[in-house]
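Query structure, 118 tokens:
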């Protein structure tokens, strides 16, 4: 198992599905780049409702970061070349919305400043 934190951009929309036992899950794709600047496609699946809700707020092209278990995938492209990507079982989704919200919550207010006037 690879414990991964991957950031990139959403590709397409989130697809909601249900297992035969009634468990909801979501599938989506995101694109990121490797150290050489080559595009890497990540196939994401999430069972956590919090992660699903976070991903559903995003549209194609929006920035996203996911944390979870990753596995390297390989397939043959339509041109016959070997392609590589990641399959990620997502536990946590972080978006620009979440980051802004966390920053705002951690900003000190005037009443928090006990130093007084400068």
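Result returned for the query:
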């Amino acid at each position: 198992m690879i414990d991964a934190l991957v950031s990139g951009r959403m590709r397409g929309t989130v697809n909601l599905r249900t297992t035969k036992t009634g468990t909801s899950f979501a599938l989506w794709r995101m694109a990121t780049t490797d150290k050489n600047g080559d595009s890497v496609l990540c196939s994401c699946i999430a069972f956590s409702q919090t992660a699903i809700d976070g991903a559903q707020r995003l549209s194609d092209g929006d920035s996203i970061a996911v944390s979870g278990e990753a596995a390297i995938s390989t397939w043959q492209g339509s041109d016959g070349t070997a392609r590589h990507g990641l399959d990620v079982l997502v536990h946590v989704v972080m978006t620009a919305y979440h980051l802004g919200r966390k920053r705002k919550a951690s900003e000190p207010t005037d009443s928090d400043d006990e130093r007084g006037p400068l």
